Amino acid sequence: MQVYLPIAEISVNAFLLLGLGGLVGILSGMFGVGGGFLITPLLFFVGIPPAVAVATSVNQIVASSVSAVLAHLKRKTVDLKMGLVLLIGGMIGAGIGVQVFNALREIGQVDLLVTLSYVIFLGLIGALMFVESLGAIRRARGATPKRRERKKHNWVHNLPFKVKFRTSGLYISAIPPLLVGVFVGILSAIMGVGGGFIMVPAMIYLLGMPTKVVIGTSLFQIIFTSGFTTMMHAYTSQTVDIVLAVLLLIGGVIGAQIGAQIGLKLKAEQLRILLALLVLAVCLKLALDLLIQPSELFSIGEA
Predict the structure, then answer these.
(1) What is the DSSP letter of 5?
(2) How far apart are CA 245 and CA 217, in angstroms?
(3) What is the full DSSP assignment across 120-156?
C-alpha cells in the first residue's frame, strides 16, 4: 500500500515504513537505545531526502523518551537541576545546529554533511562498542579481574561557577555540563538524533555522575532539546513530515514490545556486540554510497 509523504514529496510503501519503525523499536527494546542514530540512515536507504529524515526522526525520539522519563521520575533517578543546565546548553546548541543545517541546505550541501556526520560518528561508536564487547566476553569466560576504582575528582572539579547537584551528589562547575548540552544540541539538529550515545558516556566519565541517575537525566534533556529541534526545523525549513512520523511511531511502539522480550533471552555482552555490528554495517553502507559512483549521473549545466 503506497502512501504519499507530502513534505518528502515521494510515495513509499506504508508497510515498509511501519517495518522500519518496528525494526528500530525492536532494537530500542533489545539494547535500550533511542534508535535515532539508526532510523535516520535507514530512511536514507528507502529514498527519504536527508533533510526530511533528520527533521522527522526526532519526533520518534521525543515520544519514546517521555514514557521512559516518567518511570525514572517515579524512581527519583532524575537530577532535575543537572537536566536544566544540560537543557540550556542543548537549546543553544540546537539553535546553532538548525542555522548551520539551513545554511548548508540553501547551498545544497546538507545531504553531504549529514551523511559524513553519520559515517564518522557511527564508525567511531561502532568500533569502540565492538572492542569493549569483545573484552567483556573474554572477561566473562576468564577470571573476574579486580574492579578499578574511578577517580572522584578531575580537572572538571577545579573550574569556576560551581553548583551543587544534590541528586547526583556532585559539587562541580556548571560549564562542562553546559558545553556537553551545546554539543548534543548541535548533533540533534544536524543528525536527527537525541544524542544519548554521546551524553551518557560524558555524564559518567567527564562529569562523574552516578550511573543510576545518568539515563533518566539524559532522557529529560533529550525530550526538550529534541522537541525544540523539531519545532525549529518545522518553522524554519518546513522539513518535518507528520505522515512519516506517525507511521514510524506506530511501528516503533509495537517493535519495542517485541524487542524487550527478545532482550530478556540474550546476555548483555551478546546484545552489545550485536548492536556494534549493526552500527558498523550501517556505517559501511553509508560510506560506500559516498564512494561508489551512482548508476545514474545528473548534472546541471548550460546547453
Answers:
(1) E
(2) 25
(3) HHHHHHHHHHHHHHHHHHHHHHSPPPPPPPPPS--GG
Nearest to 43 by CA among 112, 123, 107, 115: 115
Domain assignment present for 302: no
CB atoms within 10 A of CB 124: 12
Report the percent of the chain where pLDDT is more than 90.
1
- Would you place residue 303 in the very low, low, confident or very high pLDDT band (cuts 50, 70, 90)? very low
CB 233 within 8 A of CB 97: no
| Residues 271 and 136: beta-carbon distance below 8 Å | no
Residue 78 lies in a domain: yes
pTM for the whole thing?
Answer: 0.66
* Separation of alpha carbons 115 and 288, rounded Å: 11
Q: Convert the pLDDT of each residue in 285-300 to its tens digit.
A: 878 877 876 655 554 4
Confidence band, pLDDT 50/70/90 cuts, at residue 170 = confident
Residue 301 lies in a domain: no
Average pLDDT, the chain: 76
Give the residue numbers spanning the domain of 14: 2-142+153-290
Strand 2-5 to strand 10-13: parallel, antiparallel, or no bridges (unpaired)? antiparallel
Q: CA-based Rg of the chain, rounded to a whole angstrom?
A: 20
Q: Is residue 147 part of a domain?
A: no
> Which amino acid belongs to residue 8?
A
User: What's the total number of domains in the chain?
Assistant: 1
Distance, in Å, from the CA atom of 195 to the CA atom of 163, rounded to the nearest integer, reads 24
